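Sanity check. The docking grid for 2-aminohexanedioic acid depends on where the pocket ends up, so I'm generating a full predicted complex first rather than guessing from homology. Inputs follow.
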Amino acid sequence: MFVDVGFACIFRRYGVIGMVKTYLNFIDGKWVRSSSGKTFDNMNPATGELIARFQAGTREDVKKAVKSAKNAFPAWRETPATERADILLRSSLILEKRKEELSRLMTMENGKILSEARGDVQEAIDMFQYMAGEGRRLFGETTKSELRNKFCMSVRDPIGVVGMITPWNFPMAIPAWKIAPALVCGNTIVFKPASDTPLSVMKLAEILDEAGLPKGVLNVVTGSGGVVGKEIVENQGIQHLSFTGSTEVGREVYVGGAKKLNSVELEMGGKNPQIVLKDADLDLAVQGALWGAFGTSGQRCTATSRIIVEKPVLKKFTEKFLRKTRGIRTGNGLKKGITMGPIINGGQMTKILGYIETGKKEGAKLLLGGRRLSGKEHKRGNFISPTVFGKVTKSMTIAQEEIFGPVTCIMEAKDFMDAVNIANSVDYGLSWSIYTRDVNKAFKAMELAESGIFYVNAPTIGAEVHLPFGGVKGTGNGGREAGTTGIDEFSEIKSVFVDYSGGLQRAQIDNK
Ligand code: UN1
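Predicted complex below; grid placement will be based on this.
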C-alpha cells in the first residue's frame, strides 16, 4: 500500500513531530515494500527536517521490476501510439492541476526556490504535452528504391525495457524528459530516482497511474546507486540505459551497458562559459550571468561557471556583476524574497567548499562569498554564499572541473579569438553563451563552440524541451535527449522493403 499521511509535521520548526510518510516502490502497478525491509530518509536541505522515508531498494526489487516491465511490454508496444500519447496528455493535465502542490514539495526536497520548482514542474508538463503530440507523428521515412516496383520505408519500433537513472537537480523535469518519449515510443521502464529527491518521481508515477498507465509499464525502485543503479546497469532484461548525472558515474554506466551491448544515452557534466565581448549590452550580460551562475544555486549541468570577458570591459562588468550578486538573498526557497536556495546535501557542500579553497590556493582572487552561511536563518541547512572568483586562468582547477554549486569564475580574454579558445579549453561541452551585438562574431562563435547548446545574448541555462539537449566531449556520448532526438533515443529503426514486381529482383547486382 502507498502509505499516505498528512504533511502538517513538516512545517513544524524543530524536527519532525508526528508521523512521516513512508513511500513504497512502484512495481507492476502496485506500491510495494522493498525486500530489504529497510528505508532511507529524505531531508529538506534548507531546514534539515525529515520530509519522508523511501524504500532502500535491493537487486531483487530491480529484478522484479524488470520482470514486470518485460511482461507489460508486448501489450504496450501494440497499444496505438495515440493511445499511449493520451495517457501522457492526461498526466500533463493532472500535473498542471497539482502544479503548486508539487512545486512546494520539490522545494522542500531539493531546496530550489519556489519559482524555480514551478519551472521544473512546468518543464515536465511541457515535455509530456510535446511527446503526447508525437503520438501522431513518430515519423519514419519513405524513399525510392533502386529497383522498379519496389517500395522503401523506415518505421520506428520500441526498444523494449529501458532503464533510467536520474539526478537530484531537476527532480521532475529530467525524469519527464526520459519517461515521456520512452512511453510514447512504446517502451516499458525501470526507473531509479536520485536518493536526494525521490519524492517528485513518486508523484509522477502516481499521476501516470491515475492517468491510466497499464500496470508494469513504469516501475520505480528507490535506493542507492551502488545497489539499485548497479542492477539496472547490469540486468540482462534491460535493453537501453538512459542516464543523467556525473561524468564519473556515467562512465561506469557506459561500460556496464557496453558489456551487454545496450544502447546508452549519457548526459553528464558541464563547465559552461558565458563570453562577454566589448560591444555587449553589459547590463544584459550581467543579468544573464547572474541567472546562469546562481540559478538553482549553480547546481545545473548548464550552469555558467566561467564568465569570459573581453579586457576593455572587464572592470566595468566585474563591478556591475558583483553589485548584483550582493543582492542575492539566500535561504529557504519557500519564503518570499529568497532568490537562492541551499546546496542539496552536506557532501556536496563540502565538495564545493573544497573547490573554493583550491581556487584560493591556486591564486584566483576571491571577490565575493566563498563561505558557508551559518546565521540564524541558515544554520540548519546547507548554505554557501554566492561566490565569485576573479583573475582565474585556464589551467586552474576551478576553471576546469565542474563545481556544481554557486561559484563562478571571471576570466579575462584579450580578444574574441582568445575568448573562444578559453571557452573551449575544458573537457566538457554542454552549453555556451556569447553576449555581443556583432552578428558576425556571434555566428563565428556558434561555428567554433565545442558544445551541444549555444546561446546568443542569453544565459547558458534555460534549454527548451522541443530542442535536442546534450553535449560533446566529456558531457555526453553522442546522443541527445528531448526534441525529436528524444524519439530517436527511445526507438529502434526498422528499414522495410516491399517488392510488388511479382518476380525476384536483386539489389546491388547489375541485371543488365
Ligand atoms: C541540468 O542541469 O541537468 O537548460 C538540466 C536548463 C534546464 C535543464 C538543465 N532546462 O538549464
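Relevant for the grid: The chain has a mean pLDDT of 95.
Also worth noting: The pocket of 2-aminohexanedioic acid is lined by residues 123, 169-170, 244, 300-302, 461-463 (CB under 6 Å).
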